[in-house]
Design a protein that fits this description.
Helices cover 40% and strands 24% of the residues. The chain contains nine helices and 14 strands. The protein has a five-stranded mixed β-barrel with strand order 1-2-3-5-4.
Length: 371
């Protein structure tokens, strides 16, 4: 085989092509050392263990988890040989691992986002009383998601649920979470609510939900966001940025929709109370009606008795004033022509008179007038 002489730049290019073909990306875990940011743009650090060290380079804006010397991290990187002949890792993603490193990174990022107001209660929105459309970001195989769906259906049912099925842990999880949240918010008709779910796990498993990009995507969501991440004791930065935090995915379902059994029981109580109240009111009304009816009857009876007594008295008075009754008592009516003679001055000697008695009339002539 004939030896081929390469220029330095050609040799570097050939080595990088070989690396690209064999190891397009590698996951490396180690402790951070010599971390620094140049010109506010470029981040340089080493990842090392007891026997070796690898230089790393990445753009500062790609750092979604704060890192510092001594922290343990896992990096997704592409091996490269630089133009100056130095081997390094061009980092695409970096994630703290281990409880101590995660805690330290979390504290730094939390302070930064708090200062920006991303966790303020004033910016949180209320969830709808009963959402009709729910966008879900989770893994379809996760027990937490399955519990969430089961409880939703048991408590209410008839909901329109759209799942964006993604892995919710690992080095790729933050980018997947961000893309899923943005995808749901890009729909023409906004969802009533978006649920971000992940069941229990270790601090490493849940670290994607402390990713700065994920937290900012939740805070910027068009639709209100509820998170159900891990167990009740697990509180992530995504929980703090969400409009509502649920202790678990199951609790998220309980917070999203009421229990139809309790609602129906409540409706039954209201209807029963209203029915009992109406029946009581009708009983009172009926008692009042009977009372008024009795009082009216008594009043009418009294009125007609009094009127009857008045009529009887009037009849008695009229009977007493009847001229025929007067004549029966021995009185008579004296007339001169058609006029009743009331005084002696009404007649003169010689006048023809008619005397009406009880049983007939007598014709007479005036022969004497005595005043």
């Amino acid at each position: 085989m004939e030896d081929v002489t390469l220029q330095v730049s050609e040799a570097i290019e050939l080595i990088n092509q070989t690396l690209d073909a064999a190891y397009p990306f590698i996951l490396v875990e180690g402790e951070v050392g010599s971390f620094k940011v140049n010109q506010g743009k470029f981040a340089f650090f080493d990842v090392k263990d007891e026997t070796g060290s690898l230089g790393c380079f990445m753009m500062a804006f790609q750092l979604k988890f704060p890192i510092a010397d001594g922290m343990k991290v896992r990096v997704l990187a592409q091996p490269k040989l630089t133009a100056w002949g130095k081997f390094s890792l061009t980092v695409r993603e970096v994630m703290p691992v281990g409880e101590g490193s995660l805690k330290k990174s979390l504290e730094i990022l939390q302070a930064k986002l708090e200062a920006e107001g991303l966790f303020d209660d004033a910016r949180k929105r209320p969830l709808p009383a009963v959402p009709h459309t729910i966008g879900v970001v989770s893994s379809s195989q996760a027990a937490g998601y399955l519990d969430f769906i089961k409880i939703l259906q048991n408590r209410w049912g008839g909901l329109q649920i759209t799942l964006v099925d993604i892995p919710v842990q690992g080095i790729e999880a933050p980018a997947q979470l961000i893309g899923a949240i943005e995808h749901l918010n890009e729909q023409a008709t906004p969802f009533d609510v978006i649920a971000v779910l992940r069941g229990g796990g270790s601090a490493d498993d849940l670290s994607a939900f402390n990713h700065e990009g994920v937290v900012r995507a939740i805070a910027a969501s068009r639709a209100p966001v509820i998170t159900g991440i891990g167990h009740e004791v697990d509180v992530s930065l995504s929980d703090l940025a969400a409009d509502k935090r649920a202790a678990t995915p199951s609790n998220a379902a309980e917070l999203l929709v009421p229990d139809k059994v309790q609602i129906l029981a409540g409706v039954h109580r209201v209807v029963s109370t209203a029915q009992n109240g109406l029946e009581a009111a009708l009983q009172v009304f009926e008692a009042d009606r009977l009372k008024v009816e009795e009082q009216l009857k008594i009043a009418l009876d009294t009125f007609f008795v009094r009127q009857s007594e008045r009529v009887t008295a009037m009849r008695r008075t009229i009977a007493q004033l009847d001229p025929a009754m007067v004549l029966k008592r021995g009185y008579s009516v004296v007339k001169k022509g058609h006029n009743v003679v009331l005084k002696t001055s009404d007649v003169i000697i010689g006048d023809e008179l008619t005397i009406k008695l009880q049983d007939g009339t007598i014709g007479a002539q005036v022969t004497n007038v005595k005043h």
